[in-house]
Prior knowledge:
About 50% of the residues lie in helices and about 10% in strands. It is mainly α and about 170 residues long.
Amino acid sequence: MELPLDWAAVRSALRARAAAAGIAVRDARVQPLLARARAQAPQVAERLEAWLGDLEAAAARRCRVNRALLAWLAARPDAPLAICTSSGRACVGPALAAAGVAERVVAVVAREDVRAWKPDPEGLLALLARTGVPAERAVFIGDRARDAAAGRAAGVPVLDVAAIGLDWRAAA
Length: 172
């Protein structure tokens, strides 16, 4: 799934909110900004994360679902799904419900569950630990270079959605 958010606008608004609260903003990316806020002012970080979580949750209810990916997953009905996402936990449930796969998900690692984000393998390693699945028996499906890097670093085989014929441009 892909959240229908203008991430450039979200990053800009998040930076402005952080700066207004006195957080020194050195990195425009969401995760480093939130990590810096957590280190400097945990109460401000909570407000920023809640604001971002609300945006993501609303977007998740109207997310783009990749029908080809759902068909690929449907062809593997016995394979449990586990989610490692850079998005917040608040959007995971609505997104999975929109895709109709919530009942297959056995574990989730979201942005708030880790200190380091993709391409760092922390999230995937946590997911493997939660599920008890060895890295070599898992498959990480991603759509960005940071996904592939995280998978390689965790020792998990990676499938790029484009490499298996799935393209977000085909999402309905």
